[in-house]
Amino acid sequence: MARSRPASRWTLLFSLVVLLGCMVIPGWTVKHENFKTCAQSGFCRRNRDFADNASAKGEAWSSPYELDPATVHFKDGHLTGVLIKTTANEKVLLPLTVSFLESGAARVVVDEEKRLKGDIELRHDSKANKKRYDEAEKWVIVGGLEVSKSATLNAQAETGFTQVLYGPGDKFQAVIRHAPFGVDFQRDGQTHVQLNHQGLLNLEHWRPKVDRPEGEEAGEDESTWWEETFGGNTDSKPRGPESVGLDITFPGYDHVFGIPEHADSLSLKETRGGSGNHKEPYRMYNSDVFEYELNSPMTLYGAIPFMQAHRKSSTVGVFWLNAAETWVDIVKSTTSPNPLSLGASSKTNTQTHWFSEAGRIDLFVFLGPSPKEISKTYGELTGYTQLPQHFAIGYHQCRWNYVTDEDVKEVDAKFDKYQIPYDVIWLDLEYTDDRKYFTWEPLTFPNPTGMQEKLDESERKLVVLIDPHIKKEEGYFVQEELNKKNFAVRNKDGDVYEGWCWPGASNWVDCFNPAVISWWNSLHKYDRFKGSLSNLFIWNDMNEPSVFNGPETTMPKDNMHYGDWEHRDIHNVNGITLVNATYQALLERKKGEVRRPFILTRSYYAGAQRMAAMWTGDNQATWGHLAASLPMVLNNGISGFPFAGADVGGFFHNPDKDLLTRWYQAGIWYPFFRAHAHIDTRRREPYLISEPHRTIISQAIRLRYQLLPAWYTAFHEASVNGIPIVRPQYYVYPDDEEGFAIDDQLYLGATGLLAKPVVAENANTADIYISDDEKYYDYFDFTVYQGAGKRHTVPAPQEKVPLLIQGGHIIPRKDRPRRSSGLMRWDPYTLVVTLDKNGEADGSLYVDDGETFNYERGGYIHRRFHFRESVLSSEDLGAKGPKTAEYLKTMDGVTVERVVIVDPPKEWREKSSVTVVEDGAKTSSAAPLEYYKQQGKKASYAVVKKPNVGIGKTWRIEF
């Protein structure tokens, strides 16, 4: 990338090294040598060895942990006690708390008494906090901790057990075994989740380092207890070994989902080898992984340690609240029935083994029984996804990098010339002055305000990159303030930590410090981030954090953060602390103007969904990466972070026109829809692609815009109950076992829209699996597909997006193409009604101003549409508030201009009009009805033209 003015020799050299490291050379893949395997991670190897030893001993193995019955107390929904770990030298005391929550979830916390009391000695004169990290919930948990008032001890419990009844109707029970310690969580008398069933509970307690005479061997392998070296960096480990591990078994469950982020299938694979399985555990250690590979348990940029187990008619889940590096092994075992038991079938048990390097055991257990109930209960804890500004669900155009402000304006004009809608254009790091954030490159972006004002003419937005590494340069105001205020991350010796990232030598902002929030807020104000306007939003990248010269491309684990916590304690929540600071900063950049923030983050953890969107990072322009994007986005959605997407077209390499076209047709089904590309790739804005591909891509983007009302309604639903925006097959049909592993098709919200993007080269059909016996209609020509439990071949020539609508739905859309979603605000609606077998349909629409928080005060429209007995009606679902009347007045002129009814009664052929009755109108009116008969497998349809009923009003249309 050419620069417009001289740079220092060091910067030029560093940039050359970085660019050489990022050269787009086909066949390059992730550098495995930069990242640990389990065998190279001391605590992972120790916990796996512990499991292997237990397995080898078989029935002779007994977990060395027991619950002292004399310490057990139950009061106000909390059961407390002390676990005793018996070793050769001592008995270690481990306080236990099991909390039974009003939501039906249960929380299990195990800590270590000595560390709680600070009764340990740190090595190397370290100032690290002596406790196990117990502040993850500050960043993650926002509610749902109300303790059950009805939970009770079961007086009928057997000796050696404590039993607690809890949950709705006391249908849940926790059966706590004293010796060896274990917990079975039951629903309706059947066990669904088991803790320590295999006896793999392992909490590495504190002990002093013993300097043994030369030649004397320790009883255990201590080679990674006190320090550990990888990639030239030595981790000092001042607290010694402190990992925690636990086995969690799901008896009778064959499928487990979740624990993103991995480039893998939705249904997670086994991890102990064998055909089609992984040999490594799934790893969660947020990392900057260059050109990541597919079908891998390798760690990526985000981590949500939330797993669901699913079987017919039942979903359960666990959430492992630990911010340290974590690995999860998965093994499935099948038990054969007693041959004398007639009708009995084999049963699969999924055994998982979780282990983290540090912190305490803090585990939530959810007993469902449905996927929706799991989503809701988990969402009550960690928060539901944000309701973003409306522009954020449109199309985003990005690359590394648009090189000047005139380049941005030219791209903007070309989209208009070719009539391709988009909402947001993005700037990667080259917009800054020598890679210093909160500045503009003076020669290439001399007029940033003029650029943003031009975008604002079409109600478009600008997103710019701001990362957590701050360039170390004398005179740079951000860096000087960072160090003057002691807001930087420090190394193990207490000095400001210095590493390399895009700017060269850099320091890192420590967003764990509460004082950093107000400072970070000030940097985003218009008078400090000069040249920024109200239509500018933020992209937080590299926030794992990425450190080019650090171990595993991140910070040393013995770095120090606010509160004297080591980086090992907080690594996986590090990214969302930056997002939190940015979110607070964007709420009110100008006094009195509160708007919903928009932030994109690469690194994330549970809870990030409240503040940001995410994308799957630096993918590649291959058919494989296109296919992988679907399960990755779906997995994030069921894990509570549904505002997810992947770089359309692939970040690395140059997609051919067929791949790029199919990727756009898939990308319109990502909740976050953005095209992005590496600096060394060819320009590939949609208008640059030759025909017929340009038109096909444009049509796909327009389809996204046509369906924005349905998308926004789905976003709203996710924001109030945690249900994913796009949903996998098992989630919609939890009783259909044939659909449990399907992860290449998806449903949009509750609309009945079923999409199956083409993700294979040269394919011209799509096999769409249908679970139920309802009619499904091709979205474009109303061809009927029907037949439960089988795949239906749908034509998918290159110009077509395979898309069906299930019968029984009413879909709101807008059919007038505009340059941006903001310009569609006052456009009329079309309602598409697909009748089910009973001639009925339902749907909903949610609308607000798409910008402010006025919806929290009643400033929105929420309607439910019914079609029953040849009457289409609109019912108000909203709750009134102080902003209701004002908002309804602004929407008074927005109407329904067209109603399309698919598969109507044949007798409608004789009708020419319908009766329209709007609430409050003195008389009814008539609207023309046109009936269109179709041949063969295509359903007939009817169109009501210009009923002109208000979208925010109560009305009915009588056929």
From TrEMBL:
InterPro entries the record matches: Gal_mutarotase_sf_dom, GH, Glyco_hydro_31_AS, Glyco_hydro_31_C, Glyco_hydro_31_N_dom, Glyco_hydro_31_TIM, Glyco_hydro_b
Annotated SUPFAM superfamilies: (Trans)glycosidases, Galactose mutarotase-like, Glycosyl hydrolase domain
Keywords: Endoplasmic reticulum, Glycoprotein, Glycosidase, Hydrolase, Signal
Intracellular or extracellular location(s): Endoplasmic reticulum
Keyword Lyase found: no
Domain Glycoside hydrolase family 31 N-terminal: 95-329
Residues in Glycoside hydrolase family 31 TIM barrel domain copies: 386-714
Keyword Endoplasmic reticulum: yes
Pathway per the UniProt entry: Glycan metabolism; N-glycan metabolism
The Glycosyl hydrolase family 31 C-terminal domain, residue ranges: 722-811
Region forming the signal peptide: 1-29
Reactions accelerated catalytically: Hydrolysis of terminal, non-reducing (1->4)-linked alpha-D-glucose residues with release of alpha-D-glucose
EC numbers, comma separated: 3.2.1.20
Annotated GO biological process: carbohydrate metabolic process; N-glycan processing
Matching Gene3D superfamilies: Glycosidases (3.20.20.80), glycosyl hydrolase (family 31) (2.60.40.1760), Golgi alpha-mannosidase II (2.60.40.1180)
GO terms of molecular function: alpha-1,4-glucosidase activity; carbohydrate binding
GO cellular component terms, semicolon-separated: glucosidase II complex
Family classification: Belongs to the glycosyl hydrolase 31 family.
The protein, known as: alpha-glucosidase
UniProt lineage: Eukaryota, Fungi, Dikarya, Ascomycota, Pezizomycotina
